[in-house]
Specification:
There is one protein chain. Helices cover 43% and strands 14% of the residues. Strands 1, 2, 3, 4, 5, 6, 7, 8, 9 and 10 form a ten-stranded parallel beta sheet that branches. It contains 13 helices and ten strands. Helix 4 runs parallel beside helix 5. With 329 residues, the chain is an alpha/beta fold. Strand 2, helix 4 and strand 3 form a beta-alpha-beta unit. Bound molecules: S-adenosylmethionine, 6-(5-methyl-2-OXO-imidazolidin-4-yl)-hexanoic acid and iron/sulfur cluster. S-adenosylmethionine (SAM) binds next to strand 6.
């Protein structure tokens, strides 16, 4: 098992390395643990959009935001399965279903479990993100065939309260524990470019790399600034994080969590190809593909196919993440 006793000073030292040295070290760790030319493709679907009571400052789906997004009901199971079939046909390996909920409600569990079972039966890996879970809900999802649960810590423990006030960092950790207890694999990461300091990025990676067991998937999102959200308005269209600092964050995630899949997640739409290429060199080995993330646009399938061809990357076969999953169950 990868080491989980990182101290903050060690992580700060990694961030401080000369850029080329840091990327070289991350690339070495990547090669020692993964097939370096392969990138996992994941597709996202918002199964329940908008109307969320939480006040996450980045999110278009919060009722506290003023984005004009229309709140919708939970999608029908059949519509979700049709969308999953499209994702599979487009070459995705994992189908991630997201709901704009503070927490999963027992009354919705039959429907979400049916979605999981149906997607799993298509031969796709399943992932859901539904907010907080109880132990019973986590076990029901596991029994239905859920492989991964996504629940992000988002930022450092110190910065967390500046971004979200309606729940605590500790509550995030509690749900992650329920997910682990139920035997599911964990997808947990966060967002950079929210006005955090370098020290916060150190604290963010430190919190992930010192979890009792590293998340099997670590999504690193670059803030997508959305007009009408607290952070989108604050940043007013400016670039929120320097590209080199973003690549550094990916590299430090790769070095500290060698066996995890590090996902270059939201924010690719506005990221240049050379920056994305540097992220792949620094150990990112997973992306969200498809035209849409949850509510915002994503670099679509054609754009990604052209980039993969240019960089000589190929979509990963299902084997590798399944191996990490088998290690959990
Ligand atoms: N409601 C559930 C929750 O918050 O756990 C699940 C859905 S939520 C939209 C999933 C994750 O998407 C968030 O934790 C956050 O890291 C990411 N996210 C949301 N809005 C974003 C944005 N504007 N830019 C980048 N990442 C974003
Ligand atoms: C994650 O870390 N990023 C995804 C997924 N997990 C659920 C969501 C990104 C959302 C980007 C903004 C939007 O489309 O609303
Ligand atoms: Fe709700 Fe999740 Fe958006 Fe926060 S990130 S407002 S919990 S949908």
């Amino acid at each position: 098992m990868s080491r989980t006793n990182w101290i903050r000073a060690e992580i700060a030292e990694l961030f401080d390395l000369p850029f080329t040295e840091l990327v070289l070290r991350a690339a070495e760790v990547h090669r020692a643990n993964h097939a370096p030319g392969e990138v996992q493709l994941c597709t996202l679907l918002s199964i329940k959009t908008g109307g969320c009571p939480e006040d996450c400052g980045y999110c278009s789906q919060s009722v506290h935001a003023n984005t004009g997004l229309k709140a919708e009901k939970l999608m029908d199971v059949d519509a979700v399965l049709a969308s999953a079939a499209e994702a599979k046909a487009a070459g995705s390996q994992r189908f991630c279903m997201g709901a704009a909920w503070r927490e999963a409600k027992d009354r919705d569990m039959d429907a979400v479990c049916a979605m999981v079972a149906g997607v799993k039966a298509m031969g796709l890996e399943t992932c859901m993100t539904l907010g907080m879970l109880t132990g019973n809900q986590a076990r029901a999802l596991k029994d239905a065939g859920l492989d991964y649960y996504n629940h992000n810590i988002d930022t450092s423990p110190e910065h967390y309260g500046d971004i979200i006030t309606t729940r605590t960092f500790q509550e995030r950790l509690d749900t992650l524990e329920e997910v682990r207890g139920a035997g599911m694999a964990v997808c947990c990461g966060g967002i950079v470019g929210m006005g955090e300091t370098r020290e916060d990025r150190v604290g963010f990676i430190h919190a992930l790399a010192t979890l009792p067991r590293h998340p099997e998937s670590v999504p690193i999102n670059a803030l997508v600034p959305i007009k009408g959200t607290v952070l989108g308005d604050m940043w007013n269209g400016e670039k929120m994080i320097d590209d080199i600092e973003f690549v550094r964050t990916v590299a430090v995630a790769r070095i500290t969590m060698p066996q995890s899949m590090v996902r270059l997640s939201a924010g690719r739409e506005s990221m240049s190809e050379p920056t994305q290429a540097l992220c792949f060199l620094a150990g990112a080995n997973s992306i969200f593909t498809g035209e849409k993330l949850l509510t915002t646009a994503n670099a679509g399938g054609g754009v990604d196919a052209a980039m993969f061809a240019k960089l000589g990357l190929k979509p990963m076969e299902a084997e590798e993440p399944m191996r990490s999953l088998q290690a959990v169950t």
